[in-house]
Write a structure and sequence with these properties.
Elements: H1 4-39, E1 42-53, E2 61-74, E3 79-92, H2 110-113, H3 129-140, H4 145-149, E4 154-155, E5 161-162, H5 175-186, E6 190-194, E7 199-208, E8 221-234, E9 240-248, E10 251-254, H6 271-274, H7 290-300, H8 306-310, E11 315-316, E12 322-323, H9 336-347
Antiparallel strand pairs: 1-2, 1-6, 2-3, 4-5, 7-8, 8-9, 8-10, 11-12
Length: 350
């Protein structure tokens, strides 16, 4: 019996150890599953919207404005990041004449102008345009598209449509702010996954086309503006997670008196919104339309930083366009401006 007792104790200890080990393994597996759920990649969508207008054109001035916004929404459709900016491009056409160096004109968006815009000194709340736009953008964070659509704008003392809750931070007319953000949230955009935080960057690069000309007695003059947009989502390392490219090409016509001769129903639709109706596929050597080609370029930028995008090597193709050799089957349009606009958007993401 004395010899049997130690054997029984050893067996009891072994069974106890086995039970404990099984319990620990079970806990470890549960812990591992929990950590995987927490650190797993979440799904987001990048959306973009632009509201172009030529209504600010008047005698002596060809002008186009384009309010634009980009958002990142989560899997529940709630905005987690939002940015708003506006391209406000004008060119003098006094007496129907445009300057010889019009194509050299440098345009900046209101966000880029910053405090130089000069609104702070005349604003009833002492805030610049970019500060007020940012306040509206921040107000949209956490909301779904239905909740954003339901935002009520009331008329302020100076006649602007504003959000009453933002009377201390945004007193500029917010009609187009709201319209651009709703358009961006409704955009199918680009879906991506990210295990950490994602930030959004936007940019607009504008120029005057070389096809612009002064008016003559025989023909109206015209100013063709070209504005390219990009919206990107980047991770904490500054690498692009998703990108969108768009563009508008409004053409403002005028006579020798500098009077605007546009049809009253003239509207500007972005190339991305035109889609197949832009009509490039029928003349493209690869049978792809503009929106498909820039989409391929934007996807090519995923995983790259702003600096890496700027360093993308371009080679001349048979059409004389500077392109990415790796994209010969998906993007044959000139890509120099695409490089600039996506790199710039990635650089200002925050």
């Amino acid at each position: 019996m004395k010899k049997l007792l130690p054997i029984i104790l050893v067996l009891a200890l072994m069974l106890s150890f086995a039970a404990c080990t099984a319990e620990d393994v079970s806990k470890a597996e549960d812990s591992s599953a929990t950590e995987s759920d927490v650190s797993g990649e979440n799904s987001y969508t990048l959306g973009f919207g632009v509201i172009p207008s030529v209504s600010s054109s008047k005698t002596g001035s060809a002008a186009v404005t384009a309010m634009f916004a980009a958002v990142i929404t989560d899997s529940d459709g709630r905005v987690v990041a939002c940015k708003i900016d506006e391209a406000d491009n004008k060119l003098d056409i006094t007496d129907g004449v445009i300057a010889d160096n019009a194509t050299e004109t440098v345009f900046k968006t209101k966000q880029e102008i910053g405090s130089g815009y000069g609104m702070g000194s005349i604003s009833p709340i002492g805030k610049e345009w970019f500060e007020q736009a940012n306040a509206f953008a921040d107000y949209c964070v956490g909301k779904t598209v239905d909740e954003i659509k339901a935002i009520t704008l009331t008329e302020s003392e100076n006649g602007n449509k504003i959000v009453a809750d933002l009377s201390a931070s945004c007193t500029v007319d917010s009609t187009e702010f709201l319209e651009a953000v709703v358009k961006a949230v409704n955009d199918a955009g680009k879906t991506f996954t990210c295990s950490g935080e994602a930030s959004v960057g936007i940019v607009a690069i504008s120029s005057v086309s070389g096809s612009s000309a002064s008016a003559t007695d025989e023909a109206d003059g015209s100013v063709s503006f070209n504005t390219e947009f990009s919206a990107v989502a980047v991770d904490s390392d500054g690498k692009v997670l998703a990108g969108i490219i768009d563009a508008i090409q409004p053409k403002i016509t005028f006579n020798t008196a500098g009077e605007i001769t546009l049809d009253e129903n003239y509207t500007v639709i972005s190339k991305r919104e035109l889609g197949k109706n832009y009509g490039m596929s029928s003349v493209s050597p690869i049978g792809k339309d503009w929106h498909e080609q820039v989409d391929a370029f934007a996807d090519y930028c995923v995983g790259k930083t702003s600096a890496e995008i700027s360093a993308i090597e371009l080679t001349e193709n048979s059409e004389g366009n500077m392109v990415v050799a790796d994209l010969s089957a998906s993007c044959t349009i000139g890509s120099s401006d695409l490089v600039k606009v996506v790199a710039a958007a990635a650089a200002n993401a925050d």
